[in-house]
Amino acid sequence: MKIDVKKLEETFLPILLKEGFVPEAAVAMARIFSETTADGVFSHGINRFPRFINEVKMGIVKPGAVPQLVNSMQALEQWDGRQGPGILNALHCADRSMELASQFGIGCVGLRNTNHWMRGGTYGWRAAEEGFLFMAWTNTLPNMPPWGGDRAALGNNPFILAIPHRNGHIVLDMAMSQYAYGKLEWHQKCGTDLPEFGGYDRNGQLTKDPSEILETERILPTGLWKGSALSLVLDLAAAILSGGNTTKNIGEYPEETNLSQVFIAINIERHFGEEQLNSLINETLGFITNLNESAQHPGQRSLRNRKYHLENGVEIPDEIWKDIIQL
Amino acid sequence: MKIDVKKLEETFLPILLKEGFVPEAAVAMARIFSETTADGVFSHGINRFPRFINEVKMGIVKPGAVPQLVNSMQALEQWDGRQGPGILNALHCADRSMELASQFGIGCVGLRNTNHWMRGGTYGWRAAEEGFLFMAWTNTLPNMPPWGGDRAALGNNPFILAIPHRNGHIVLDMAMSQYAYGKLEWHQKCGTDLPEFGGYDRNGQLTKDPSEILETERILPTGLWKGSALSLVLDLAAAILSGGNTTKNIGEYPEETNLSQVFIAINIERHFGEEQLNSLINETLGFITNLNESAQHPGQRSLRNRKYHLENGVEIPDEIWKDIIQL
Question: What fold, for B178-220?
């Protein structure tokens, strides 16, 4: 079923209001769930919306909670998300990091006790749109074995790095596993193998078969030992900077909640005029694609999806749409 | 030949003095080249020393140059390395980022026109020793094709993230290629295959044969499309924050020089007492190794090498030692 992006937003809004979100909060979340869908990231957009509503109903996400400042040292702050909605907590802290960067050149906010931020790229796009160079990451529950191990002990801890660019922001949004669980499920549904090895089968061999990996739950760290190590340090850094939980601690709750996140914004206006920034980036992108025709930069596919879906609407599977309108 | 670590340092020092470094600079570099060797990173320690001296002789590295502040906005600074020695420029800017962090909670320094910093981990160990959470990265000349491409257009851009820990700091030091060129050369010398795919052979197939990869120069980005994308954003961020060269620009010089680097230090004392920090880290490391016996954390092997080599001396191949004492 083809649904207009505006219509998506209008559909999400009353459902959120019914769950007890104040209008301003509901409007912001409805917009972000539909933008994420328009960008083609269904797994953290429309496909995730029913689960998010369920988490509100279960009391995992507290609709009335607003983040609270708990610690501050000039350009460095700690906030407590008080189990509020992950999107709003993350938006608040991303914005706060930009305010600090406007004042101090760079700003860093640690956020604890928050919930899933959905698509991490959301905060990267927002900061790039405001002209900031921006980094952020989150930890998760244990969902990935370390390299060489077979039991989940690390999170896949998505990491975001965004750079403003007039012709389309450069937004890296990468989890520490080679494939997201959502991607495995999608390939399973389509009956296709993964293009590359994504984890281990029942015999402990690397496989491209999504069903085998979903069964063993042994997803492969991206870059093997490298993604494994990067996941560990991002987790520790998030817990330290927020004063919150590590991946280990999160695994002790019955559901994934009380996550730790970090937001770092850097004011680059002072260093570069917009013209100079754009020509520097264009030069590098041109250099890469001249040598390697098919090369794409991070963010490019999202932009293409966004443009297409805003013009043509989004094709939503009937069963998903049915789930949504029944909420 | 077994050489005492102290003897290494005493051997490097007069050679550096002869090349025109002032005593303070020569002492610092002699110490770091020997520490890097003691940590087992020969490729950026003793093995690299003759090449470094040659770069001084060729005028690529200017022994008298000291870094200069070119731009400043509270916690954010830009320095020009003026083609001085990479180790000293990087030490200076790492220290400067810590000073800024002491004042503002977080500090960020961009460094342009510098030379190879040798082992990136050096600056991570130093900052962790001072109690700072620390990130740094550098760009390089184009030495890696983007994912899906066959011509080098990205750098392998090492990224460092260090976390202080009483029982041994956690220091991630990862390049964006799955294997370093130095590692390929080492396997070639030993006549062994790589443990995992490291690049492409002459027929465009993934291979573990180091000689084939050294011939095609098609090393594999770590995490395939992910390391490729991360390399790109780190390069752009380094050039933007330093006001310096991108990987593309660096490729236009006859030799690798005029690199761009970023140093970010965060003051975590305020958030955590040392006890709390240590127990948080111990808990996570214990959790991972309880579930996965063989798991190691970043920095662990360096520490083990350091301890062993300080007690027993370092086994240096005769031909390398001969090269050194002839300098």
Answer: Wheat Germ Agglutinin (Isolectin 2); domain 1 (3.30.60)
